[in-house]
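To the structural biology subgroup,

Please find below the input and predicted structure for Serine hydroxymethyltransferase, which we are adding to the shared reference set this quarter. The sequence is reproduced verbatim from the submission form. If anyone notices a discrepancy with their own records, reply to this email rather than editing the shared folder directly, so we keep one authoritative version.
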Amino acid sequence: MENIQFIKACDPEIASVIEREYSRQEYGLNLIASENTVSRAVMEAQGSIMTNKYAEGYPSKRYYGGCQYMDEAENLAIERVKKLFGVEYANVQPHSGSQANMAAYFSVLSPGDGILAMDLSHGGHLTHGAGVSFSGRLFNFSHYGLNPETETIDLNQVEDLARANKPKMIVAGASAYPRTLDFKGFSEIAKACGALFLVDMAHIAGLVAAGVHPTPVGYADIITSTTHKTLRGPRGGLILSSAERGKKINSQIFPGIQGGPLMHVVTAKAVAFKEALLPAFTEYQKQVVKNAAVLAKVLMERGYKLVSNGTDNHMVLVDFSGLDITGKDAEERLGQANITVNKNTVPNEKRSPFVTSGVRIGVPLITSRGMKEDAVGDIAGFICDVLDDEANVPKVATKVKELCTHYPLYGDTAC
Ligand code: DSN
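Predicted structure (tokenized):
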């Protein structure tokens, strides 16, 4: 258990909340595809005194005195992430992926401009033009989806829509797409149509950093990401681009949409980027892909349909269309067995987003705990047992707790 002696002394109620959340994480299997577990070093940086400082502006150009160490930390974060992805420019201040996307759009587009992106119900993201998001309210989005037969992105459809709608920007990137994204193909369509090309690599950033998914660098005009998914850093966002675009992007983050950066988070990002440059991080990402492949294989062998019939990355999407069980039922039932997943819409979804016909299952966090193919094979079996028959829940819940004791959330290492 992490050290929370001061919280215990000052605020027992919150100490109790943290302790119970710790137990949930330690003794349960967290298979939310967008979550991970940060190193102790990242957590220490995020809980450090760097939180005490206002640092509006950018290194050497701040609106407050006393920022010399803030500058050092932010410069380290910038230089490390530039090296990690091989880019000329990085902004590490976005508080989240949403804010990274908002600033990226604002840096090159005006309200009302057209953007072509992936449909939310086919695996896209809220900030890719959903009506309830700022993106859908401010910009004129059109959407591509999955090919009904292959359940993969169909670049012919993307091209047809781009030619018909003449968007100023094409967005590639998804929050529930288990396949490799063809950045070269997208960029060729964008170029041919005179559109800018933005890649939101939030889900796959760690895979890209490790070279186990193709990089959008060299194809995209702007790249956005979160830092806490496969990249395994603190919760936050980042933007990458060419040096030429940097000035405009910087001014859209601050003062455009944010005030003072969260310097404790920026500092933790610097630590995470250093970790991501280590060989062990590449091995971790390779294991993530191997683990997801085992998960997919066992689920399909046990008769469950996966969107696109498999995975190339860190997640699978199980499709219950035509079955009695819904995504909501599956999420709840698996939760009772100490297995956390999230319900998810599937292509041609017939149920509401609160019910859905699918679940998204990801392996980044369990891979961070050291789980390899054997353990993931067992976990896939547990999931099928629970989905097959609710009566299996108590038995599986016990097995999950037992498995988790062999893979502690935090071992003895700092990084
Ligand atoms: N909510 C994130 C996810 O789960 O994929 C995306 O922002």
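Summary notes: The chain has two domains: 44-276, 286-405. Residues 34, 97, 125, 175 surround D-serine (CB under 6 Å).

Regards,
Lab coordination
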